[in-house]
Amino acid sequence: MVTLNPHQGPTSGGNQVVITGTNFTGATSVKFGTKSAGFTVDSATQITAVAPSNNSAVQVIVTTPAGTSAPAWYYYISFPSKSSLSETMGPLDGIPITLTGSSLTTATSMSFGSNSVVPTVVNDTTLNVTVPPVTTPQTVGVSVTTIGGTTNGLTFTYVGAPTVTSMTPTTGPDYGGTASTIIGTNLSDAVDVSYGPDSTSYNVIDDTTIVAYSPGGTGTVAVTVTSAGGSDSSQTFTYTVSPG
Predict the structure, then answer these.
(1) pTM to 2 decimals?
(2) Whose CA is closest to 43, among 23, 61, 59?
(3) Which residue ranges does the record assign to the IPT/TIG domain (predicted)?
(4) With b meaning 16 or more CB within 10 Å and e meaning fewer, what string describes 94-107?
(5) Taking all residues of the chain, what is their mean pLDDT, rounded to a whole number?
(6) What would the pLDDT profile of 80-133 be if each residue is shown by its tens digit?
(7) Contacts (Cβ under 8 Å, ≥6 apart) of 23
(8) How far apart are alpha carbons 174 and 199 in whole angstroms?
(9) If phi over 0 gives left and psi between -120 and 50 gives alpha, with beta otherwise, what is residue 149?
(10) What is the SS3 assignment for the chain?
(11) pLDDT tens track for 175-185
(12) Whole-number pLDDT of residue 94
């Protein structure tokens, strides 16, 4: 009986495959399908071969002066491809996301910049992974490694959580329309400003300034600034009752 370790590899070949069996002394040929492989006879029971390139499952056969070995199957794994990430932006402490692509079944790791994590293989086209945390906002390359190779081409942007330090004015009529200047940090990535449960219109001036326009409402409500990095609800707005 002949065994291979590993029994699969990239279509480009070039990886070492340890062949275990018996009576290998004086071996003259190792073939992966119809292709000859470079090899070294380590002992009577072991050969180390370098897999040639190919794109399908093939039988590996060792030939010696005494004859040929029983065949063992070797499987070529296609190079992985990535088409999209379910989220391309998120907080510094990471979020769960899904990678869509092809030839992903043998995925062993995903890298976000210099940080590597092990994904969960859903099927050949889908990986689930939790983005690893970082300490500062940044955009990093995303790669996935399978037995077929490593592919790049996507990015993920870590966004700092918005912080609001002040808001002026903090009161206005109940029919809405009051323009308030919101001051803070990490505001340029804002995706929503809400007064209580109601989202409202706003203009991002720069990373430290937003001008928001109160919707209609009553009482005192929290003002929440939300981005991919998180949210801040530290400020409040009080509606005054209009006469009449």
Answers:
(1) 0.80
(2) 23
(3) 79-159, 161-240
(4) bbebebebebbbbb
(5) 96
(6) 998 999 999 999 999 999 999 999 999 999 999 999 999 999 999 999 999 999
(7) 44, 64, 66
(8) 15
(9) left
(10) CCEEECCEEECCCCCEEEEECCCCCCCCEEEECCEECEEEEEECCEEEEECCCCCCEEEEEEEECCEECCCEEEEEECCCEEEEECCCEEECCCCEEEEEEECCCCCCEEEECCEEECCEEEECCEEEEECCCCCCCEEEEEEEEECCEEEEEEEEEEECCCEEEEEECCEEECCCCCEEEEEEECCCCEEEEEECCEECCEEEEECCEEEEECCCCCCEEEEEEEECCEEEEEEEEEEECCCC
(11) 999 999 999 99
(12) 95
